[in-house]
Design a protein that fits this description.
This protein has 511 residues and is α/β, with parallel strands linked by helices. The chain contains 18 helices and 9 strands. It is found in: Membrane.
Length: 511
C-alpha cells in the first residue's frame, strides 16, 4: 500500500495537520532542552537538531506523520563523548553517524526490521512509554541552596500537580465535546491562561533555559581531520547510527500498525541519514524518530508530511520570534500532555495476553521493557531478538521425529521429519537404538533437512555407533552439500539424482 501524501489536502486536513504540528512543537521544547542537558550541550544545539531532522525526515522520509528530533536514547550515548572531547567532536560524530545510516539505506537493509518479533516490539513500546513517563518526574525537582536537586514541596508542588491534572482532564474530556482542534493544544492554552490570570507561581519552560536564537548557520566541525579523530568518533557514530535506526524503524512499524498502512524503511533510513549529516554541519546534536512526539501527532490527527514540516516551522519560529512567549508556558501543561501520550502509548492490552500466549513470549516482552527502562534501547532490542531466536531454536529442536518400519528387504527404515541442527542434535541421537536394530538400517532424510555442520557431525557420530555394533547403515535423500561435507558417513549415502534435495548447508568449508 502506498504511503505517499496525496497531491492535494483538503482545508480540514491542512488545518488538522498544522495544528497537530503546533501541538507537537510545544511538547518538543522541554523534551529537547532536557535531552540537550543530558548530552551536556546548549538548548539551541538540541532545538536546531529537532528543526532540521524533523523537516528533512518529514519531507523526504518513508513514514508520513512520524516525528523525529533530538532523542533521549541518543543523548545518553553522547554524554561521554562531549565530556571527554568537547562539542565539536559531537558534531563530527553526528555527520559520520548520518553517513553510516545512508550506507545502511543504500544496502537496503531496512527490511530486516520486519524480523523483530512481536513480543520484542511490545516490550519496546512499553519500555519507552515508561521511560518517557518517569523522565517527567525530573521536572518536579528544584535546586537547593547547596546546588543539589530536591523534590518540590508545599504550594509549589501542589500547584504543579493541580495544573498537570487540569491539563490531563482537558485532553481526555474535550474530545467528547468537540474535535475541531487538538485537545492537547487547547489544554496548553487553557492552563497557560489560567496561570497568567491567577498569577500562580509555577515552573515554566524558561526555567529550563533560554530558547532565543537565530537561524542555524553552516559550521564545519572544528576537529583534526586525521586517523586519530576517526578512532575517537567512529565507535560513537556506529552506536548512535544503530540506536537511531532501531528506534526509528520500530516506531515506523508501530505507526504502520496504528494506521494500517505500510511505511518505507529504506527511504526513512536514507532521509534520517541525510538529516543527521545536515544537522552535524549546522551545530545540531542529531536525532531519530521520537515515539512520544509521534504518538502526540497521531492522536491529534497529524497523518501527513505537513504535520512534521509544520512542527519544524513552528519550532524554528519559537527560536526566532516567540521565545519570550514560549518560555512563559507552564511546564505542568507540557508534562500533562506527555503523561497522556505515555499512557496512551503503553500497550495496556498486553496484560490481557497473560495465559493466552506462550510463556516465553511474555518473558521476552517483559525483559525488553525492563532493559529499555534501566539500560539502553539498542541493547534491549538485541537481547530480545537473541532470546526470541534461542526460544525458537529450542522449540523447533523438539519437532524432530521419526517413523520406523521394516521394508521389503528386511531393513529397518527411520523416516525422519523436521530439521537437524545444533539445537536438535540430542533429540536426533535419541531417536536411534543401534543395539536393538537389525543388521541393516536405513535413515531416510526425504522429509528432514540438515541445516548446519553440527548436524553433519551428529550423522557421522551415528554412523560410528552402528559401525561399532557391526551393523550396516545407509543414508538416503541427502543434498549434495551434505554428501560433500560428511566425514565417516560419506560412503554410506545412497545417491538418487532425481529425488535427492538440493538445499545448502551452513558451513564455512563451502566458502
Amino acid at each position: 500500500m502506498s504511503n505517499a501524501v496525496p497531491s492535494g489536502l483538503s482545508p480540514a486536513q491542512i488545518k488538522t495537520n498544522v495544528l497537530s504540528g503546533l501541538t507537537v512543537a510545544l511538547a518538543m521544547v522541554p523534551e529537547t532542552i532536557a535531552f540537550a542537558f543530558v548530552a551536556h550541550v546548549s538548548p539551541l544545539t538540541g532545538l536546531y537538531a529537532a528543526v532540521i531532522v524533523s523537516f528533512i525526515t518529514s519531507a523526504f522520509g518513508g513514514r508520513p506523520g512520524m516525528i523525529s528530533g533530538a532523542a533521549g536514547s541518543l543523548a545518553v550515548v553522547m554524554t561521554a563523548l562531549v565530556v571527554q572531547h568537547g562539542v565539536e567532536y559531537l558534531f563530527a560524530t553526528v555527520v559520520l553517524m548520518g553517513v553510516l545510516q545512508v550506507l545502511f539505506a543504500v544496502a537496503r537493509m531496512g527490511k530486516y526490521i520486519r524480523m523483530v518479533p512481536y513480543p520484542v516490539m511490545l516490550g519496546f513500546v512499553n519500555g519507552l512509554a515508561m521511560v518517557i513517563f518517569f523522565a517527567q518526574f525530573n521536572h518536579f525537582k528544584v535546586a537547593a541552596d547547596d546546588g543539589s536537586l530536591q523534590w518540590m514541596s508545599g504550594p509549589l508542588l501542589y500547584t504543579m500537580l493541580g495544573l498537570v491534572g487540569l491539563t490531563m482532564a482537558v485532553i481526555y474530556l474535550l474530545p467528547r465535546v468537540t474535535r475541531v482542534v487538538p485537545s492537547a493544544l487547547v489544554a496548553i492554552v487553557m492552563v497557560s491562561a489560567a496561570v497568567a490570570v491567577m498569577g500562580l507561581e509555577t515552573r515554566t519552560v524558561g526555567d529550563l533555559g533560554s530558547i532565543a536564537g537565530g537561524l542555524p548557520s553552516f559550521h564545519v566541525p572544528q576537529v583534526p581531520f586525521n586517523l586519530e579523530t576517526m578512532k575517537i568518533i567512529f565507535p560513537y557514530s556506529l552506536i548512535l547510527a544503530a540506536i537511531g535506526l532501531i528506534e526509528t524503524l520500530l516506531t515506523l512499524n508501530l505507526i504502520d500498525e496504528m494506521t494500517n498502512t505500510r511505511g518505507q524503511p529504506n527511504r526513512e533510513s536514507m532521509a534520517q541519514g541525510a538529516a543527521n549529516v545536515a544537522t552535524g554541519f549546522f551545530s545540531g546534536m542529531g536525532g531519530c524518530a521520537m515515539i512520544g512526539q509521534s504518538m502526540i501527532n497521531m492522536n491529534a490527527g497529524g497523518l501527513h508530511r505537513l504535520s512534521g514540516i509544520a512542527m519544524s516551522a513552528f519550532l524554528l519560529s519559537f527560536i526566532l520570534f516567540a521565545s519570550h512567549w514560549i518560555e512563559m508556558i507552564p511546564l505542568a501543561a507540557l508534562i500533562g500532555v506527555i503523561f497522556v501520550m505515555a499512557i496512551k502509548t503503553f500497550e495496556w492490552g498486553s496484560f490481557r495476553l497473560f495465559g493466552k500466549i506462550p510463556v516465553p513470549d511474555i518473558f521476552v516482552g517483559i525483559l525488553v521493557a525492563i532493559i529499555t527502562l534501566i539500560s539502553d534501547l539498542a541493547i534491549a532490542v538485541l537481547v530480545g531478538v537473541i532470546v526470541s531466536a534461542l526460544v525458537f531454536a529450542w522449540e523447533h529442536a523438539k519437532e524432530i521425529a521419526a517413523t520406523t518400519y521394516i521394508d521389503e528387504a528386511g531393513r529397518k527404515v527411520y523416516r525422519l521429519k523436521g530439521s537437524v541442527f545444533f539445537a536438535s542434535i540430542a533429540n536426533f541421537q535419541a531417536l536411534f537404538t543401534p543395539q536393538e536394530d537389525p543388521v541393516q538400517v536405513v535413515v531416510d532424510f526425504k522429509q528432514a533437512k540438515v541445516v548446519d555442520h553440527s548436524a553433519l557431525a551428529a550423522i557421522d557420530a551415528l554412523a560410528e555407533r552402528y559401525a561399532q555394533q557391526g551393523k550396516q547403515l545407509s543414508l538416503k535423500h541427502l543434498s549434495p552439500d551434505c554428501r560433500a561435507l560428511l566425514g565417516r558417513a560419506r560412503d554410506l549415502v545412497e545417491v538418487n539424482l532425481l529425488e535427492d534435495p538440493t538445499y545448502p548447508v551452513a558451513d564455512d568449508k563451502l566458502g
